[in-house]
């Protein structure tokens, strides 16, 4: 990017989008995975009156919950309040939350896979599209960008086949070995629905997309190459023409980064297991997002300062979006989040880079 | 080792112990994590009549269960049937199994830690010592070596503080950040008890020791260096004079191998996430144990042959003990285990190495 173009971008685009587009910004933008959630008393107040699906399916409630952490902390991005399971009921899958997802009839046969519907783009989550419009108009004054998101096909398949949260998703890993053709048929359908679901969010106003591949790290490289890579590539490539930055999230995937780096995404969200300066060379000039261990927020403010500064220093030398390595714990004190935001805002990346 | 010595060792020592001591054996010895367990009908028959603690605390039942998979498959090593929780009740901790461990009063205060007893060596598990004698005399005709084992201090602390199985052990990770001094005090006590517990097993007749650090992979390198490395080193070093090979097991630790390689152990048991030929250079000339994905045993025999052969080839170029990357699934068909043993026995490592 030449100097004049860079100056224009700097003047007009929000910090978060500039960092996603590869700019080595002076301050790292910050948002927090699961920032609208159970650690906030204002969220619990709403949660006491509505079920999870009621909150997700009411555009007004979704907007309210999405905006709560923005009002409280002035974060650099909002993420629409939803769940990676949201596009599955229109496919014909019954899901309850208790509090993790419970699939009424886990998918275990080719017949069940054949029976899954592929809904039209506008049919998947019209309530979410309305919520996105509402949130965008509320955010227009502060110019805070809004993130849309979805689950990666393999991670969605993991839940559909296992049926609920699990330590090591043994039922799923067995199915994948026993029925590779059926697994691929399921992944094809989930890929198509994910594309429609994410495109609908961007058209409704989402300014960035995050693809959550929360369970990819269960697998070795060959398995990831066969059952994850082609589908992730297809989903991310199908968003290319919409011209929004794409973030791919992987947890417990230290052993897969060189393969993950092949994906067409502008940014990669990584967990806390490796420092950012070890990870950065693998992803070249693309943006890294992360990677404070969420358990640090449960410690003292001094520990938070120390550990967040360590992450910030490790993120120098390229574009960095500050975040946790995984979702925030519900036991987190909101004051600790406010403190973290201050630490990140006070850290002048250019000045400290020059000193090093 | 010179040729005459090698010939003597070859003539006298069982395959498993030769491989643990660094010999690049012609056949890879094989045993299977959780080989005495719920996938075996003969185990379920005993389990129907006795609780888990009854089985662990009766030397006769322990011996019977330990020997079941040896009789059925002729594996290259037996591992004494027990649980990493076994040394904790003598410290004053109440534990039930349902089926995972449930700690009656999870450790959350320094007062609770101070109250933990450090029992004498002979007091921790006399029933286990008796079981080991019984098993050794039963195994003497086949010359099958017997493995003793224990949990690594950090992994034991993970359960003691969390209180039960968990997806990400958030309570534990919070405690470790909030109360680092108390965590160290707990780890010190667990280290001392582990040393006594493992020494008692070796003195009773265990011919190798495996230290299970099942949850080490939750942590980044700095956290591992502070809360795991020094205690693991102390436990393993304290067994040095007993002259039995020491195996250190880590799961989900791809990012920690260079630090783990600093431990004084003869062998390292690794999960399926990285191929053995990628891992081997990190551990130099020491033995690798692993690393078939347990879910492969749930697939067809053809898939088992294919994937086991891949692991065997990847393990060439150094000492290799064949095993799974983690415990066998209770849904495994025992015939599949028999097939796996055949595949491993038929694989001539020297011949195939020469062809490559």
What does the overall shape of chain A look like? globular
How many individual domains of chain A?
1
Order of helices and strands of chain A: HHHHHEEEHHHEHHHEHHEHEHEHEHH
Mean pLDDT of chain A: 95
Number of strand elements of chain A: 9
Helix content of chain A: 40-55%
Instruction: Tell me which CATH architecture of chain A applies here.
Output: Alpha-Beta Barrel
What name does the CATH topology of chain A carry?
TIM Barrel
- Beta fraction of the residues of chain A? 5-15%
Rg of chain A from C-alpha positions? 20 Å
Tell me about the biggest sheet of chain A? 7 strands, parallel
Structural class of chain A: alpha/beta
Largest interface: A-B, 32 and 32 residues
Identify the quaternary structure here: homodimer
- State the low-pLDDT regions of chain A, or none: 1-8
- Could you give the order of strands across the largest sheet of chain A? 1-4-5-6-7-8-9
What does it look like?
The structure is a homodimer of 356-residue chains. Chain A is an alpha/beta fold and 356 residues long. Chain A has a single domain, classed as TIM Barrel (Alpha-Beta Barrel). Chain A has helices at residues 3-12, 15-20, 41-47, 52-57, 59-73, 110-115, 121-124, 126-139, 153-162, 170-178, 180-204, 221-227, 229-237, 257-260, 276-283, 301-314, 334-346, 349-355; strands at 78-79, 95-97, 101-103, 146-151, 208-213, 246-250, 267-269, 287-292, 320-324. A seven-stranded parallel beta sheet of chain A has the order 1-4-5-6-7-8-9. Chain A is globular. Mean pLDDT of chain A is 95; it is low at 1-8. The A-B interface holds A 165, 167-168, 170, 173-174, 176-178, 217, 219-221, 223, 252, 254-255, 272-275, 293-296, 298-300, 303, 326, 329, 331 and B 165, 167-168, 170, 173-174, 176-178, 217, 219-221, 223, 252, 254-255, 272-275, 293-296, 298-300, 303, 326, 329, 331.
């Amino acid at each position: 990017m030449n100097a004049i173009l860079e100056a224009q971008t700097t003047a007009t685009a929000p910090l978060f989008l500039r960092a996603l587009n590869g700019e080595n910004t002076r301050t790292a933008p910050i948002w927090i995975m699961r920032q609208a959630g159970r650690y906030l008393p204002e969220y619990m107040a709403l949660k006491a009156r509505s079920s999870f699906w009621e909150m997700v399916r009411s555009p007004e409630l979704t907007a309210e919950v999405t905006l709560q952490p923005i009002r409280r902390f002035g974060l650099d991005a909002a993420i629409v309040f939803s769940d990676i399971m949201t596009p599955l009921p229109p496919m014909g899958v019954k899901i309850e939350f208790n509090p993790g997802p419970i699939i009424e009839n886990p998918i275990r046969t080719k017949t069940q896979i054949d029976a899954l519907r592929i809904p039209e783009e506008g049919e998947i989550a019209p309530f979410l599209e309305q919520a996105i419009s509402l949130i965008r108009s509320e955010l227009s004054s502060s110019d805070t960008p809004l993130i849309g998101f979805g689950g990666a096909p393999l991670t969605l398949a993991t839940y559909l086949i296992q049926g609920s949260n699990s330590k090591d998703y043994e039922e799923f890993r067995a199915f994948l070995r026993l029925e590779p053709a059926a697994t691929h048929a399921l992944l094809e359908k989930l890929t198509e629905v994910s594309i429609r679901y994410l495109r609908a969010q961007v058209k409704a106003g989402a300014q960035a997309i995050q693809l959550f591949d929360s369970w990819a790290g269960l697998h070795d490289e060959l398995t990831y190459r066969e059952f994850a890579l082609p589908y992730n590539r297809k989903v991310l490539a199908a968003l290319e023409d919409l011209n929004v930055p794409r973030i791919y999230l992987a947890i417990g995937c230290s052993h897969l980064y060189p393969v993950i780096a092949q994906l067409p995404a502008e940014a990669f969200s990584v967990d806390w297991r490796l420092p950012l300066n070890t990870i950065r060379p693998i992803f070249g000039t693309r943006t890294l997002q992360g990677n404070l261990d969420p358990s640090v927020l449960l410690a003292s403010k001094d520990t938070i300062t120390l550990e967040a500064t360590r992450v910030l220093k490790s993120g120098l030398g390229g574009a960095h979006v500050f975040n946790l390595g995984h979702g925030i714990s519900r036991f987190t004190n909101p004051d600790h989040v406010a403190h973290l935001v201050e630490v990140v805002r006070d850290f002048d990346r250019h000045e400290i880079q020059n000193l090093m």
